[in-house]
């Protein structure tokens, strides 16, 4: 078996093999070849597993993204996608060979982290990935959807004044607005991924990137500049489903939530993606009106260079930790002294006794601040070697706001 890179000439074979691995058939692209989720595939970054007689039996794709780290720092990130092996060749080492080859290529590009969305949670931890951001669905019955006035004095919401406005557009009318507003949002949101321009032009992904019919509520500030949007449609059962709500601050999010929650002739409003710590449930006059779906993992993170990763992100308190990190998939191990001063970190090799011992997948989980190290200590995955080490790690690794990723790939 050979793992080889693909070219543009392999596009159809790659797509067919990937779909066959999942027992599916490719849907018909929209006119011009766009409107399908794989329209933005980067064929120079994809891999195929091929048998000795030339038959493709596995695929692994990669996108070129930027990931926003705590502190608003943007770094290159490989987005792993389209990973599959034909049923006839599973459990023969094909997946492991592709993942090993792919991680080597990521390193060769000079990148220090990789991300993915896991189709099954049990697959990717053995390759060093750990869940790092979470999301949940929130359903609100229309007849219980009133928002309460904030109790804090001095807020615009408390006085009933919204200096901005909401305009209703169709998806086809506002593509440039969506792209610009999302880009502003993702640059300030830890855990967010970029959406390259070719995704929007090719309609790759899920709505509102895909050209499916959607209404879009666009919020504009007092100067008329777009600073948020909510993409939605009313479907079966008179349920209004919001694909995503993008807002540059909490006041804009509240205005958009009020708009969709006030929609007439719908039975319920479903927000598909809200952070687990979203304030929306607290803003409802009836606290029990918001039915939260179980939080699910979204973005998984894999670190390939621990010192570079730890010195790249922003930090919000001073402190010092010795981390003993094991990477069994790549056969690597390192003990690192992490020293944080004035928001900057140094990370150097050390022979000091460790404060925490952990797997590289667990380091990926805590890296963006979305998973508390103490949680993984209590779960038996991270070992704390001294009292107070877990609490210090919790304080050090926290982000300025909870990481959240909306982008589907």
Automatic annotation (TrEMBL):
What Pfam family does this protein match (any one)? Acetyltransf_17
Domain (N-acetyltransferase) spans 1-150
Work out whether the entry's keyword set contains Transferase: yes
Keywords carried by this UniProt record: Acyltransferase, Transferase
Which residues are catalytic? 124, 409
Q: Which SUPFAM superfamilies match?
A: Acyl-CoA N-acyltransferases (Nat) (SSF55729), SCP-like (SSF55718)
Positions contributing to acetyl-CoA binding? 83-85, 91-96, 119-120
CDD domains on file: NAT_SF (cd04301)
Entry keyword Transferase = yes
Subunit structure and binding partners: Homohexamer; trimer of dimers.
Q: Give the record's family classification.
A: Belongs to the acetyltransferase Eis family.
Q: State what protein this is by name.
A: GNAT family N-acetyltransferase
Organism of derivation: Streptomyces longisporus
């Amino acid at each position: 078996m050979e793992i080889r890179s693909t070219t543009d000439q392999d596009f159809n074979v790659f797509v067919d093999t990937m779909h066959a691995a999942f027992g599916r058939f490719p849907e018909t692209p929209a006119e011009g070849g766009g409107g399908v989720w794989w329209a933005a595939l980067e064929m120079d970054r994809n891999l195929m597993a091929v048998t000795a007689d030339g038959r493709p039996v596995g695929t692994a794709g990669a996108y070129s993204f930027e990931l926003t780290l705590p502190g608003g720092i943007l770094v290159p990130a490989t987005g792993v996608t389209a990973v599959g092996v034909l049923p006839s060749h599973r459990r023969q080492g094909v997946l492991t060979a592709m993942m090993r080859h792919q991680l080597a290529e990521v390193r060769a590009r000079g990148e220090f982290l990789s991300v993915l969305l896991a189709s099954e949670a049990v697959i990717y931890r053995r390759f060093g990935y750990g869940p790092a951001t979470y999301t949940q669905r929130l359903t609100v019955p229309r007849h219980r959807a009133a928002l309460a006035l904030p109790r804090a004095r001095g807020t615009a919401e408390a006085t009933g004044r919204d200096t901005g406005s909401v305009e209703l557009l169709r998806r086809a009318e506002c593509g440039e607005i969506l792209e610009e507003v999302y880009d502003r949002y993702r640059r300030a949101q830890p855990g967010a991924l970029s959406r390259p321009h070719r995704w929007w032009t090719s309609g790759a992904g899920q709505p509102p990137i895909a050209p499916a019919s959607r209404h879009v509520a666009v919020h504009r500030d007092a100067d008329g500049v777009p600073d948020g949007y909510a993409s939605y449609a009313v479907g079966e059962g008179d349920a209004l489903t919001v694909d995503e709500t993008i807002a540059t601050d909490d006041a804009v999010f509240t205005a958009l939530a009020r708009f969709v929650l006030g929609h007439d002739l719908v039975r319920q409003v479903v927000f598909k993606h809200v952070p687990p710590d979203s304030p929306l449930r607290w803003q409802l006059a009836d606290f029990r009106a918001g039915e939260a779906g179980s939080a699910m993992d979204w973005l998984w993170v894999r670190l390939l260079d621990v010192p570079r990763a730890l010195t790249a992100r922003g930090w919000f308190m001073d402190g010092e930790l010795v981390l003993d990190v094991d990477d069994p998939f790549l056969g690597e191990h390192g003990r690192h002294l992490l020293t944080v001063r004035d928001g900057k970190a140094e990370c150097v090799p050390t022979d000091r006794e460790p404060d925490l011992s952990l797997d590289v997948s667990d380091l990926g989980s805590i890296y963006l601040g979305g998973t508390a190290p103490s949680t993984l200590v209590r779960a038996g995955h991270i070992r704390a070697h001294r009292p107070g080490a877990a609490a210090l790690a919790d304080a050090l690794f926290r982000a300025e706001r909870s990481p959240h990723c909306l982008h589907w790939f």
